[in-house]
From TrEMBL, chain A:
Transmembrane segments: none
Coiled coil regions, renumbered to chain: none
Main location: cytoplasm
Localization, UniProt: Cytoplasm
Gene (name only): GNPDA2
Record-linked Pfam families: Glucosamine_iso
Enzyme's top EC category: hydrolase
UniProt GO cellular component terms: cytoplasm
InterPro entries according to UniProt: Glc/Gal-6P_isomerase, Glucosamine6P_isomerase, Glucosamine6P_isomerase_CS, NagB/RpiA_transferase-like
Protein name in UniProt: Glucosamine-6-phosphate deaminase 2
Lineage: Eukaryota, Metazoa, Chordata, Craniata, Vertebrata
Automatic annotation (TrEMBL), chain B:
TM regions (residue ranges): none
Gene behind this protein: AMDHD2
Residues annotated as domain Amidohydrolase-related: 62-401
Organism: Lepidothrix coronata
Keywords of this entry: Carbohydrate metabolism, Hydrolase, Metal-binding
NCBIfam families reported for this sequence: nagA (TIGR00221)
Annotated InterPro entries: Amidohydro-rel, GlcNAc_6-P_deAcase, Metal-dep_hydrolase_composite, Metal_Hydrolase
Cofactor: a divalent metal cation
Protein name according to UniProt: N-acetylglucosamine-6-phosphate deacetylase
Amino acid sequence: MDEYVGLPRNHPESYHSYMWNNFFKHIDIDPNNAHILDGNAPDLQAECDAFEKKIEEAGGIDLFVGGIGPDGHIAFNEPGSSLSSRTRLKTLAMDTILANAKYFDGDLSKVPTMALTVGVGTVMDAREVRTHLVLVACVFSRLVGIDTGIESKETFVLQVMILITGAHKAFALYKAIEEGVNHMWTVSAFQQHPRTIFVCDEDATLELRVKTVKYFKGLMHVHNKLVDPLYSMKEN
Amino acid sequence: MPSNKSVSDAPIVQFTNCRILRDHWLQREDLWVREGKILNPEKLFFDEKGSADVQLDCKGSIIAPGFIDVQINGGFGVDFSLATDDFKSGIDLVSQKILSHGVTSFCPTLVTSPPSVYHQVLPQISVRNGGAHGAGILGAHLEGPFISREKKGAHPEHCLRTFEAGAFQDLLNTYGSLDCVRIVTLAPEMKRSSEVIRELTKRGVCVSLGHSVANLSQAEEAVQHGATFITHLFNAMLPFHHRDPGIVGLLTSDKIPAGRRVFYGMISDGIHTNPAALRIAHRAHPKGLVLVTDAIAGMGLAPGRHTLGQQVVEIDGLNTYIAGTKTLSGSVATMDTCVRHFQEATGCSVETALEAASLHPAQLLGIEHNKGTLNYDSDADFLMLNDSLYVQATYIAGQEVWRQDASGM
């Protein structure tokens, strides 16, 4: 969904390297089906436009998986990004640069300051909007995800899944789901996506209201009912 | 999966389910090979949108760079210091047989011999790549005749020489030609050795110190003139003394020119060096340790009498002596035995033991960009080993050239 600008593709901290080491090399994907933005393209805006085109040509995105930054950004849509933005060049916020410094030997001067990223609008692209967001917190320390969203066959991005772990993301999660949709916390835009799952661990819920967390944890028994074949057969 | 390669049509082989030695540690990674070289799969994926043509399951084996033996005098009845009519087939036999010991490149070694032997034998040794026919030849190692009388060990006294009169020219006349010579062992206390060392170094020949009674300053001077190796540390040199450590002192000398490293050969067969001495050397200078076999013609054969150049040698188990004496002369150890013994005696990591037989000799000879590692674009000479470091299969240029068969032969 993004790539640093100006960083050599084979740099160990580039997103190409990250995707290769953590995903592509472990599976048998056809390399022709792997598309990552090229942060060293001669015309960066053209590269972004081409990426949007590729998404369209592929028929849209079935599953969008992402994390969030401590400043609530999704991909590199830093606080202040337009909620209708498309794939484009973004300058990184200081928060992000500081968070990334640990991957560049703690040397701020080595951290890239710009990146290409999909826009909030790119991911939100939907012909019908339904306000149904499901958040599931984990029980004890296991990660659990439930999706009880309403099916919408018209969406361009079928399913959005955001993974949030750790206490340092807790405040961003609070802003993302307990406050309103806000361009200063761009991941909050997904409240308006028809099918979104936020998967998080116990620590990430530390800034939420106890009531919110209890509500979603309470959904476990609903989930169990749905996945237990014997049970649902009896119901019908 | 069909691959789309814009760079080459050659088949790509992916070795999976293995642990490879890279960047000094054993990593759970696949090894990719194309056209005899180690391939970068990330580059293949993003640049060429390519993928593997063949996937081989290595069943959890360790994959390490092939071993490099820089001191081997013969084996299986073949003696590199004997100018026989079938010398060429002899060297071919040894290079083929040592594949089963994990050796993919070696330096055939000649002990002190009369000039006639050098003149006849050296032209028959050529630097060549390895393959199914056998391990690659990196060049000859000439151990002697410019060595010390007092530390001749198993070398024949009547063939010892000096280069007092004509320095480098004397050496050249003795050997005949340096075309395929990779290493020369000499005693640095000999007169005019500095000139000879400088001249050899200028010509890209690695100079090694051995069979010598040099003190530490003479050894340091030799290093300053270009010497980079020590032949079988501890053997055939003055013992370590706390007020004059001799050649052994080079391991911790502070007079080594910046950016250079002194390497030292060790025969870790359990006989040439007491394990405690092996540990002392390893702990003092771990990055310089190079495992060598110093194997002789009797290696791989039944116990009994064999030749070593002009001498007769008696083999009894792992002990090899000049017939009728207690003077050690070479060994019958194989390289993989040395690696295992080294690992056991020092308690070092598997990575360290494997690098002492691959990376370090490659660094000594200045060929580590090509050999001795599993880095991308280097030659695909590698071994499959089990966890006890027994060689299961040997590959040269990406082709399997030896495999342990089920009967364990």
